[in-house]
Amino acid sequence: MRKTLLAAAAVLLAVASVRAAEEERRTLTVTGTAEISVAPDICYMSFSVQTRHKSAAQAYRENNELMNKVNAAIKKQDIPAKDMQTANFTISPEYHYDRTTNKRIFDDYLVSHTLNVKVRDLTKVPNVLDAAVNAGANQVLEINFTVENPKRYASEARVDAIKAARAKAEQIAQLTGVKLGKPISISESEPGGRIFYPQAAMMRDGGALAEGVTLEPGEIKLTHTVYITYEIE
Question: Domain of 54?
Answer without folding.
Answer: 42-146
